Structure formats: C-alpha cells, structure tokens
C-alpha cells in the first residue's frame, strides 16, 4: 500500500476579491484548494463571495488606502493562518477625466490605491515570505501601461509604475526565494466593462478591431494566468509581465 504524501495547504491573499477579476481569481485559487483571504472595502460583496466559495475562503473588510494599517493587518493574517504563500495585488480604482481636469488630489488618490498600497502590502507580505524562504507575488496591470488610452492619465501612471515595480521587486526578492510577476489584462468581459462597451458601439468596435483574436476575454482567462504564476508550474519565471489580451497589445 503506497503512502500518500501530505502537503501543507497554501494560503493566498487576493485584494479586491469581492467582485470582477478579483472574484474570478479567488474562485480559481479556492478551486485549487488554496486557502484564500479576500480583502475589500465592500463587506456585502465579500460575504457574497464567501458564501459562493465556501470554507476555503476568508474575508477581511479593509481599505488599502489606509497605508498605516497595512503592517498590523499582515501580521494578524500571518499569525492567524500560519503562512502567506501567495499575494495577488488586484485591487484598484479608475477615473476617466480629461487630463487638464485631473486635480492633484484626483491623481494622488489613484496613485495611493493603485500603486502605493500595492507597494506597502507587498513589502509587508514579503517580510513573511522572506522568513519562510518562499512565496509568489502577482501584480495586476492593464493595457493602460502598454499603450496610451485617453482620459486615464493617473491610472496609466499607476499601472506603468506597477510594471516597473514588478521588475524591481523581482530583482530584490528572487534571490530570497520569492517570485514576482505581473498579469496585464486586456479587455475582459465583466459586468462593468460589458455595460460600458455596449453603450459605446464605436469604442467596442475599436477594441475588437485591434484585438487579433476578435473577442473580449473572460475573467477566468486572467484567473488561469494568475494561478500559473501562483503555482509551481512557473517555478523558474520571475519579473515578467504577461499580457492576457487576445493580442490587443500587439494588434493594429
């Protein structure tokens, strides 16, 4: 009779895990038997996700723009769950405004949530991962970091920063056993994006015409890419930005 080898269950944090891409990512991790902690601002969305995902899902209601609260939050999660193996920095906010109408406060708000909070959370989780000698951090970028998109200057700046930070973090952390990668979704069919594109046929046609695969992606497409980076299947990959975009970033 062969003896089964038991492996310790991995623990993941997914920010913005209550809806959209974060929901799909958390769902995939839970399905793969990863203990998944979803962090978000909307307690009701988090609760709905937990009810859908079951006992492998844990929720934390927290606003990541509260930078000073992040170190204590991470310590508490590490103590409660014993390990932190995977961090998915997915939470973000967007704002569409002509460049000349973006105030300093607007710009700083987007940078704080989409870039500074990603750094602060990664830094604290990295301390836990360094102590255990392993981990995988996955950042979520955007097509806004691949080429110019109108009326999203602060979002573009933040996401471009995320891609640069991915490479810098990978150089610092990979010698310590922690891989850092980034997924850059193209136009993905979420409730929000589908509604926006369906209300703007001209924009929808433009999106599809420059996407060689000729269709929008599904949230599960992004989730599969994130899981690849979270798993041992990508054990020799670090510092990369992977577009999951149907070819949109190289389309014409």
Automatic annotation (TrEMBL):
SUPFAM superfamilies: NAD(P)-binding Rossmann-fold domains (SSF51735). Gene3D superfamilies: NAD(P)-binding Rossmann-like Domain. Pfam families: adh_short_C2. It comes from the Bacteria. Its EC number is 1.1.1.-. InterPro entries: NAD(P)-bd_dom_sf, Sc_DH/Rdtase_CS, SDR_fam. It is an enzyme of class 1 (oxidoreductase). GO terms for molecular function: oxidoreductase activity. Keywords: Oxidoreductase. PROSITE patterns: ADH_SHORT (PS00061). Belongs to the short-chain dehydrogenases/reductases (SDR) family. This is SDR family NAD(P)-dependent oxidoreductase.
